[in-house]
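User: I'm writing a short methods note and want a consistent example. For Cysteine--tRNA ligase, I'll paste the sequence; you return only the structure tokens, no commentary, since I'll be parsing the reply automatically.
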Amino acid sequence: MSLHIYNTMSRKQEEFIPQQPGKVKMYACGPTVYDYIHIGNARPAIFFDVVRRYLEAVGYKVDYLVNFTDVDDKLIRKAEQLGSTVPEVAERFIEAFYEDTEGLGVRRATRNPRVMEHIPQIIAFIGELVEQGSAYPSGGDVYFRTKSFAAYGQLSHQNLEELQLGIRIGIDERKEDPQDFVLWKGAKPGEISWDSPWGPGRPGWHIECSAMAREYLGDTLDIHGGGNDLQFPHHECECAQSESLTGKPLARYWMHNGFINIDNQKMSKSLGNGITVNELLKRIKPEAIRYFMLSGHYRAPLNFSDDTVEQALGSVERIANCRINLEHRLGAVAPDGAGAAGWHAREGAPIGVLRYEPLTGDEALDERLRGLRDRFAAKLDDDFNTPDAITAWFELVAEANALLQLPVAPAPALRALLGLMDVMDGVLGLLPQPDLAAGLLDDEVDALIAERTQARADKNWKRADEIRDQLAEQGILLEDTPQGIRWRRK
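Assistant:
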């Protein structure tokens, strides 16, 4: 099965065919960096990270951009509150964004373009729109003539009359039409600004993505993504200004993720129920947060609560413990790495998920593992159905647990199970990554366990207890098994 994506533009699922074979140009709207990101921001960060990982896993080279809005009314107000400057506020929260998203297992994009570093490109883009008559200067601002773009409303599937209330925030005499939107905002006294042909000012929100996407990815993207709240007006306005200028579609596929509710209520400032990722990571394991985000289909709403996160933690620990058990058993039966490999590459097949064939010496097991590999890929090919892909992973866990119950588990079979688990984790990123800076390294743990084993053999119970307590303080749990002492992190 080939990859199919639900395209917001067409409102139907379509086969994914990039413009250039083997290459994908992908852009996801990033945050306005005036504060810590909240869990609503975390959902697209995690989901589009999975999209990027899967595309790479099946052989595509992905050029992935996530922008930073680093100049905006919110940043100006924040700088005033902090007695700081807009660039200083932006830098602070860009670093916080990296820390929070990397804590959630999100890989950095190919590029993270910033508005303040692309003012010349933005001014040039606006200038071209003015020159062709799609935009006009007025009172130090520049506005886009919405009615000049006949297809306005194509993405949100509404006409201008239906959208009028969404566009109009109040009567503005500088506009030719209340539905027009701003491309360049004239500076107020004391505000950060840049010189332009229309006077000092700064970019409007919508124009920045169009200009930066065009700068690095060309006139047409393969995939443009973001949250549902960006369909209108942000992405609608992006389409209008970009397609007016180039005469080409801005993106071939539009993807939008659903909202997150908090305890069955919409997350909003008025309710005061927003939760920052920075705060969340202090009390919830990152893999549980990531599991929660992927446990529902990306287009559906998710409900965040203590119960849902507790369930996510239990599920992800079940997967992690299974992998630990496989590694431990493999270390017992093949401590020096001996034994045939569990996989071999299929000639001419794409890399990653679909390339490898199990090679365990057990034909029936090989067939079952091939089926699990193919089901996992098929679910992701079906509009990135991560909940069902996770179900395939749990089927692998069941297969592994059955093998681990056998008195003798062959090394090739253990390696094949571990290999498929790593393939799945390479896409979904659900296995915990120990914070090595915060505690003992694996080799240090092994050395302490060996010392404790010797202390017990020598009947030095005091030292053995000291080591157990030291490991417990570091979150290391010890378990006795028929193959010896096994350890895992809490």
